[in-house]
Every structure is written in structure tokens, then in C-alpha cells.
Amino acid sequence: xxxxxxxxxxxxxxxxxxxxxxxxxxxxxxxxxxxxxxxxxxxxxxxxxxxxxxxxxxxxxxxxxxxxxxxxxxxxxxxxxxxxxxxxxxxxxxxx
Length: 96
Known about the structure:
Blueprint: H1 11-18, E1 25-27, E2 30-36, H2 40-57, E3 62-66, E4 69-74, H3 84-94
Antiparallel strand pairs: 1-2, 2-4, 3-4
Helix pairs in contact: 2-3
């Protein structure tokens, strides 16, 4: 069963949520974080792990892999901005 569409957070709530995600950068209606991994193989393994976490949450980041750097962009496209789902997934990823 698919959850109902989340509503985009208001600007002041986004600012509060950003305090819980200090390694993420706010960029318009998204939050972005770039991870530096020790090798291309470890970058691929990290992306595989993120994929599993994202699939379990039914919320999927945009992923850009550049050799040992992985950039994740979170936004709830169906809500037209950031929602709690974005910050929840960011927190799960930060716990790796």
C-alpha cells in the first residue's frame, strides 16, 4: 500500500529540520550531500546500500556517482518540495 502524498514543509519548518541534518546543504526544494568514499568499488557498495534503504522507505534519492564521490539529492517531487520523508531518509543515510 502506498502512503498518501506528503505535504511540502513550510520554509521555517525546513530551517528547523536542517538543524538535524548539518551535513546536508539546502538547495531550493532539495537537500544535497556529497559523500567521499575510498574507492570506486566502495562508492558502488554505498550506492547499493542507499538503494536498499531508499526502497524500504519507498522514497528514492537522485544519485550521481563520480568515481569515489557520490552525490545524493533528496526532494519529494510529488509534493513539490521537501517533506519529512526527505529528512527521515537523510537521517537513515547519516547513520551508516
